[in-house]
Write a structure and sequence with these properties.
227 residues, alpha+beta, 3 helices
């Protein structure tokens, strides 16, 4: 786990260093990068409300793109965003390990799902991972846990720190001829999009735009053979 965590931390450093935003700080991998578990590192099911009531974080209502919390202010609130998603963080757990893919499209243009979702930093060191996390900006969501459990789409956006409801995604809300929709395998979903369950090799498209743009969404994703 320490090798993968150190490598991921180095990638986070490179990403932060390439950013033009003055608010992003480089996260340095520590000498050992041993993870410090959160108070409850065992997870089985999502909370009924997202963000978790009483969470101390704010969901962004800004325009895209949205950085991963671990890259902001030396990751000071990275653990809080994971807690708001009802998730623990600890060492990487691979007893249960599968992947889903998320595309985010705003006005017909892709918005990157960033590297570093689900990472926790203390000071300048990456110290742990949530069961839901990203290793790169491909949109692949890594789902890793010690036991079989249920994970939902709203948890990804909560740990990302982005407002996500039936009608709004960040700054983008239904109105003026535009709408927000979620597609799974190319099929438009009804009901609360935050409760969509993440399953193996699932393609999820979160789309904001016009009716015409709703007809041009991905229905599948070609996962690398190793995944």
């Amino acid at each position: 786990m320490r090798v993968r965590l150190a490598a991921a931390a180095a990638a986070l450093v490179a990403l932060a260093g390439c950013s033009s935003s003055g608010s992003k700080q480089a996260i340095q991998p520590g000498p050992s990068d041993s993870a410090s578990p959160s108070p409850s590192a065992h997870y089985t099911a999502p909370p009924s409300v997202l963000p978790v009531p009483g969470a101390t974080v704010t969901m962004s209502t800004a325009a895209a793109p949205w950085p991963a919390p671990v890259l902001l202010d030396n990751g000071q609130q990275s653990a809080a965003y994971i807690a708001a998603a009802g998730l623990p963080y600890a060492e990487e757990m691979l007893a249960v390990h599968y992947h889903a893919h998320i595309d985010v499209l705003v006005d017909g243009k892709p918005v990157p799902v960033p590297l570093g979702l689900g990472y926790v930093a203390t000071g300048s060191k990456v110290v742990g991972l949530a069961p839901l996390h990203t290793h790169d900006d491909s949109g692949i969501i890594h789902i890793e846990n010690d036991v079989p459990a249920t994970f939902v789409l709203g948890q990804v956006f909560t740990e990302w720190g982005v407002r996500f409801t039936s009608s709004c995604l960040g700054a983008y809300c239904t109105g003026d001829g535009k709408e927000l929709a979620v597609f799974v395998g190319g099929k438009r979903q009804s009901g609360d999009p935050t409760r969509i369950v993440l399953t193996k090799h699932e393609e999820i498209a979160v789309v904001y735009g016009t009716q015409e743009q709703m007809t041009k969404v991905p229905s599948s994703y070609s996962f690398p053979s190793a995944l």
